[in-house]
Specification:
Keywords: Metal-binding
Family: Belongs to the GTP cyclohydrolase I type 2/NIF3 family.
Low-confidence stretches: none
Strand order of the largest sheet: 1-2
Helix content: 25-40%
Strand content: 5-15%
Order of helices and strands: HEHEH
CATH architecture: 3-Layer(aba) Sandwich
Protein name: GTP cyclohydrolase 1 type 2 homolog
Oligomer: single chain
CATH class: Alpha Beta
GO molecular function: metal ion binding
Distance between the termini: 14 Å
Largest sheet: 2 strands, parallel
GO cellular component, one term: cytoplasm
Number of helices: 3
CATH superfamily: NIF3 (NGG1p interacting factor 3)-like
Shape: globular
Length: 69
């Protein structure tokens, strides 16, 4: 996950990327949605996503998503 986040940061040429989860998690399937994506994180997990990429998520929503997988 940490490597994935660093790769996203580099490819998008942005100053920072925040992530929650295990740093050493392997990524095979990615779900991407614009905006906060609130409500779609559970759908992403159900469809087998290892990571959920969003442009704008609130701190507590990110922690909630981490708790639920």
């Amino acid at each position: 996950l940490e490597d994935f986040a660093a790769n996203i940061k580099s490819k998008l040429n942005i100053p920072s990327v925040r992530f929650v989860g295990e740093s050493n998690q392997k990524i095979k399937r990615i779900a991407i949605i614009g905006g906060s994506g609130i409500g779609y994180e559970y759908q992403a997990v159900q469809q087998g996503a290892d990571v959920f990429v969003t442009g704008d998520i609130k701190h507590h929503d990110a922690l909630d998503a981490k708790i639920h997988g």
